[in-house]
Write a structure and sequence with these properties.
Family (chain B): Belongs to the CheD family.
CATH class of chain A: Alpha Beta
Structural class of chain B: alpha+beta
Strand order of the largest sheet of chain B: 1-3-8-9-10
Number of domains of chain A: 1
CATH architecture of chain B: 2-Layer Sandwich
Enzyme class (chain B): hydrolase
Helix content of chain B: 10-25%
Shape of chain A: globular
CATH topology of chain B: 60s Ribosomal Protein L30, Chain: A
Number of helices of chain B: 2
Keywords (chain B): Chemotaxis, Hydrolase
Largest sheet of chain B: 5 strands, mixed
Helix content of chain A: 40-55%
Number of strands of chain B: 10
Oligomer: heterodimer
Protein name (chain B): Probable chemoreceptor glutamine deamidase CheD
CATH class of chain B: Alpha Beta
Distance between the termini of chain A: 9 Å
Shape of chain B: globular
CATH topology of chain A: Chemotaxis protein chec
Radius of gyration of chain B: 16 Å
Largest sheet of chain A: 7 strands, antiparallel
Largest interface: A-B, 34 and 34 residues
Number of strands of chain A: 7
Pfam family, one (chain B): CheD
Number of helices of chain A: 6
Radius of gyration of chain A: 17 Å
Amino acid sequence: MTDINHIQPVHLDALQEAGNIGAGNAATALSQLLNKKIDLHVPSVRMVDFQAMQAIAGGEEEVVAAAFLRITGEAPGSMFFILQKEEAEELAYTLTGRKVNIIDDSFDELAASALRELGNILAGAYLSALADFTGLSMQPSVPSLAVDMAGAVISEGLLEVSTKGDHAIVIDTEMEEAESSDSDAVTGQFFLLPDPKAFEKIFKSLGVEWS
Amino acid sequence: MTKLKEDQVIKVGMADWKTAEAPEKLRTSGLGSCVGVVIYEESRKIAAMAHIMLPDSSMAGTRSLQRAKFADTALEDVLAWFQEKGCRCHRLQAKLAGGAQMFSFSEGSEMMRIGPRNSEAVKMFLEHNGIPVKGEDTGGSKGRTIEFNIMDSSLFIRTVSQGKTII
């Protein structure tokens, strides 16, 4: 049975490689959409406990906009696209031309839908590259968007993992505008949390031994 | 005069529970579908706070389960602590907050309904053990940070979009 505690550095390396393949494809899709060059890279693949996972998006109580989706198929999991408040508002402005305050009760539906669609495009590009690379089927659900405390939204993605153990493996993707020193350059985070039962299939497909 | 432990806030992490006595406060942040439960004995000014993730330990896929993660096992342990302290169940009271549904999906997955199930499981446990619920702010789709002041048994709740309330 898949036990997350058996994860070795070689497994994390393999996941990082897979993550980079997905990130590369997502960067292309995003650059086209925003009409500027966006870099996505996977700085780390980590095994973290729940406390660390809650803090990973900038602090438990930090307000973030999060698009969350479930992956079904041979390698199920959860995926998050997370933007800090200002980044989300900046992106919404780029996509819709509207200035919005995302924690306002009357948070603009067009801006919300633009951010959801952004999550959809990113996830679709990322997962299709990953599926090609691993030969495993992975279908993303339509993303759902929430603007709230990072801890509260992230914990939703930990539920599946939490029935099996106390750690999650997170493929962390950083997103930033290339060649920009501008302080309001686009930055964001993208998390992939494979369900425990997905590990064996993923590693097997990547040619990494799993005992 | 020395001020002992004044304003000391004890932080409770996800899938954990902690105890405190006045004038300490208990706090847990970023509750989404998780439920924060405080059980307290008003007269002796002692309290325990649990940050519960899942409703039932039967959901655990492994034998080495972390008891503080599940409503049934976490609250059993909390009650055992109170009994060790010499408290009787009928003197205990409870308040709870959280159990939201942060995301909505058209295809209904059971995991997405975990927030309401967490609240139900907690309330059922409290009822079984004759512990009255003195205040509750559960459900909805908002994250909550809570802080319990043992001195006056008030539970302070902060949300991003709807501000602060005290129950």
